[in-house]
Specification:
about 425 residues, globular, mainly alpha
């Protein structure tokens, strides 16, 4: 009951509320950015194909010279910050400048038609806001620092998707890979306050609408098996391919970052043209239409979206793979609908979403919870769980190390190498 502890509590609660408000504003801005490009594409389809190359180059310039550290999803940076021993290095990637840059440039990427999402960046933003509390309040200690970053990331996911359980599970299953009793209360409070704040601004909603479609394992086990295998295979190959290509183009990206962004923008334009505009943006509309039954399956959509997401990430601009992965998974599940006419299309789309998302991130519990919360459908628990477990096994065989963990380790290695290089330059100068 001490005054000091109440001040810390108030600061922490204020941070969680701030995350909810920022996530809600970010959600609205991202949606409008996505819609602006879609409307422009519908009005001027050929002219709009010039926007991705030019837009990605401009964003790459801003990322490199103004908002350095804001590139990519943001989840690897948040995970990497948990293992950093230097508070200075941690402050560089969890700063207010990163929050501003992540929001502006992700919206810019959506305005440019890139196949990216805002959910990964929201994790980075949430972690940065919580960590920044240390600048104005005496939060000290390794456990407290870790708890703030985890709580910020969990609150970010919760507020971004309106999925509080998934936010907690993501922090435990992906970011920390463990459960600590000392941080569990912090996670719960941050998720609840951020979620309530976001709901106050955005209203009570489900991300993909409400679906009452359901099935049983007995009825749909062949579809569950296929969605699990396909999701695990394509999700695992996506992660492996993205990690491999990132490694292969590292030197080229350092020397010619703007040429790379331009080339990736051209690829995005080409894929958008071939798909009739379906691959532009988050993929939210395409996934939602499949779940609600407002669209017919297109077997080429998940393939085009798969390639467009890789091109968008390799360009080096800020943006996540959460939403694109969910849309790819929905398309993947829907593409087998002609073989299972007795199973609702929405069920196949949800099975595909869980399978592919698990294949990419290798977080089966987060995947099934996030899909159930986004569709307000808990009756699919057992089929989704079975699909996720199959996908996890297939994906782990293809990509032994989870993508976000591998990216976080690479990020830490790059920082260490850059620090050693800077130190050697200082010695040479002396």
């Amino acid at each position: 009951m001490s005054t000091r502890k109440w001040k810390l509590r108030m600061m922490f609660w204020g941070g969680a509320i701030t995350i909810g408000a920022v996530a809600a504003i970010f959600a609205l801005a991202s949606y409008e950015s996505d819609e602006l490009f879609r409307n422009f594409y519908r009005s001027y389809p050929l002219l709009s194909l010039l926007i991705p190359p030019a837009g990605l180059v401009l964003i790459a310039i801003l990322t490199r010279y103004v908002f350095k550290g804001s590139e990519g999803s943001g989840i690897p940076q948040a995970i990497a910050s948990l293992s950093m021993h230097s508070s200075h290095a941690r402050s560089l990637i969890l700063s207010p400048r990163i929050v501003i840059g992540k929001m502006l440039l992700t919206c810019g990427g959506l305005l440019s038609g890139a196949s990216i999402g805002r959910e990964g960046p929201t994790v980075h933003i949430g972690a940065a806001i919580m960590y920044s509390l240390r600048r104005i309040a005496p939060f000290r200690g390794k456990d407290i620092t870790r708890g703030l970053i985890l709580a910020g990331g969990a609150a970010g996911i919760s507020a971004a998707f309106n999925t509080p359980l998934a936010g907690i599970m993501f922090a435990v299953e992906e970011m920390s890979r463990s459960f600590h009793e000392r941080t569990s209360g912090i996670l719960l409070i941050a998720v609840i306050l951020a979620g309530i704040t976001a709901l106050t601004i955005l209203g009570n909603y489900t991300y993909f609408g409400i679906s009452d479609a359901t099935t049983t394992i007995k009825e749909a086990w062949p579809a569950i098996l296929i969605c699990g295998v396909l999701g695990g295979f394509f999700g695992g190959t996506f992660s492996s391919l993205l990690l491999l290509l990132t490694k292969l183009i590292t030197n080229f990206a350092k020397k010619h970052p703007f040429s790379l962004a331009f080339a990736c923008g051209l690829a995005i334009s080409l894929l958008g043209f071939l798909s009739g505009g379906q691959t532009f943006g988050t993929g939210y509309h395409e996934a939602k239409d499949l779940i609600t039954g407002d669209a017919q399956p297109d077997v080429m959509f998940p393939i085009y979206k798969y390639i467009a997401t890789i091109a968008s990430y390799l360009s080096g601009i800020p943006g996540g793979i959460f939403a694109p992965s969910l849309s790819i998974g929905a398309g993947l599940g829907a593409s087998i609908s002609e073989f299972f006419p007795y199973i609702p299309l929405a069920v196949l789309a949800m099975l595909g979403m869980v399978g592919y998302f698990t294949g990419v991130a290798q977080t089966p519990l987060t995947a099934l919870i996030i899909v159930m919360e986004m569709t307000d459908n808990s009756s699919m628990l057992l089929p989704l769980m079975a699909t996720a477990l199959i996908a996890k096994g297939i994906s782990r065989w293809i990509c032994p190390k989870p993508i976000y963990q591998a990216m976080a380790e690479a990020y830490i290695g790059a920082i260490v190498n850059q620090g050693e290089l800077d130190e050697s330059k200082q010695k040479a100068t002396k």
